[in-house]
Write a structure and sequence with these properties.
22% strand; alpha/beta; 8-stranded mixed β-sheet; 251 residues
Length: 251
Amino acid sequence: NAMIVPNAAYVMQDYLPKGAPVRDQGKDMKEIQKQLDAGIGCIDVTKTLQKHVEEGMYYKTDHHWTTSAAYLAFQQFADVAGLDTSAVTYEKMPVTDQFQGTLSAKSGCRTGVKEEIDVFIPKKNENTTQEQVSSIVEYTDDQKKTGSFYNTDKLDQRNAYEVFFGGNHGLLKIKTPTTENKRLLVLKDSYANCFLPFLAPYYREIVVVDPRYYYGDLSELMETESINEVLYLYSADTFFADTSFAALTEE
């Protein structure tokens, strides 16, 4: 499956000043869908995000979507992928209310609006709580392992969005104790970082590749890790402009 997430300007164009130029990313995504192999499903989350826009789908000071948006997108993905999510419920927990993101930094304005970053924690009375807690994240590039999806040290640094997995990495692996024998490869940009924890209860292993920083043999990786499902998860802005994915898949 492929999930290409539109940017805030496209999803929230009704909130922009009249006549403001907005690229039609919906048209772009329809063109992508035409070019995809018949075996690849295209998950368009535009309407889902538009329906819930008042709940805060994007940060005001940053180009990323929020964790709430990622959770709604995950639910849509779960329907397509045939995942039974009925046993897992979450509690939304703020980890900072002082976030000022990349848009704030680029503008040079570091005063004014400060935002909340949330993580979704499985409720303690649910069956998959232990699976989430026991997941092991292996950072191949840094040769380290951890039992958490979150790096809280990043909350006191310039880019607090890196609380999710400490930011971007060429390759990381999430191994869980679930009895499911499904192994997922996620090809992604930073939009996926707050999305990945929602996948953990449903896959034995999740192999995560950011093509911008990965230089290995993708086919060999898929064979070695016995991958049987693939998800492409990108922001539309990255997907339409980045050339690293094409380089990674060249034979």
